[in-house]
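Design job #97: recover the sequence.
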């Protein structure tokens, strides 16, 4: 399983989006059922 990564954890998401981990958690909580970042 060396294909592209599908899911990211909070730390990876924060680093990728250049925002804080707290902000990532806020975004996830606000959008619990529909949280998607399309690139």
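Job complete. Output follows.
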């Amino acid at each position: 399983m060396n294909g592209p990564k599908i899911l990211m954890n909070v730390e990876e998401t924060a680093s990728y989006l250049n925002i804080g981990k707290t902000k990532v958690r806020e975004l996830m909580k606000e959008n619990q059922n529909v949280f998607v970042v399309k690139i």
